[in-house]
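To the wet lab folks,

You asked to see what we're planning to order before we commit. Fair enough. Below is the target structure as tokens, and below that is the sequence we designed to fit it. If anything looks off to you, flag it before the synthesis order goes out.
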């Protein structure tokens, strides 16, 4: 049995145990005995049983508090720096799309808003229209986790570094 499969089964078993524990705790708070709680099977079933609605409280008792589920964390954009060769500038549409390939062959496509990005060539400011295919660039962009898109913040254009050949002796 592989470790990956074992981990998945352990998670399913843990979820079933957690569901049984929560059901028992809610039943005890409502005044029921653990024997009156629904029985859970001991086999590791791939489906986790759905939560059952609580029975209405008798007239003299207060209802059990509802189970509070924590809210999902906020998805913030992630700032990333990516260096490589500018492969393509697609200026069709509202925002131009830049395609950059790094030295390992990883290609990333990112949206560039001409009004909000900062482009520099060396230490001098430049325009987005000054970029050409084959330029060596370092792009600072943000990755929007929710949409899966990349948005360019700044582009630094450098000269291509050429490899030197050793002198023949």
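Sequence we intend to order:
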């Amino acid at each position: 049995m592989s470790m990956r499969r074992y981990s998945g089964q352990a998670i399913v078993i843990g979820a079933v145990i957690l569901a049984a524990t929560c059901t028992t705790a809610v039943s005890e708070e409502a005044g029921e005995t653990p024997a009156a709680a629904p029985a859970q099977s001991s086999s590791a079933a791939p489906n986790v049983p759905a939560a059952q609605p609580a029975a209405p409280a008798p007239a003299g008792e207060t209802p059990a508090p509802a189970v509070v589920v924590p809210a999902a964390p906020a998805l913030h954009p992630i700032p990333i720096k990516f260096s490589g060769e500018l492969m393509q500038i697609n200026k069709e549409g509202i925002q131009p799309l830049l395609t950059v390939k790094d030295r390992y062959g990883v290609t990333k496509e990112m949206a560039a808003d001409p009004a909000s990005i900062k482009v520099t060539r060396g230490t001098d400011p430049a325009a987005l229209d000054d970029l050409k295919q084959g330029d060596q660039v370092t792009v600072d962009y943000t990755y929007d986790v929710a949409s899966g898109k990349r948005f360019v913040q700044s582009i630094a254009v450098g000269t291509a570094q050429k490899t030197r050949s050793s002198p023949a002796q």
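Structural context that might help your review: The CA atoms of residues 119 and 146 lie 26 Å apart. Strands lie at 78-90, 97-101, 107-111, 118-121, 124-126, 136-144, 149-158.

Thanks,
Computational group
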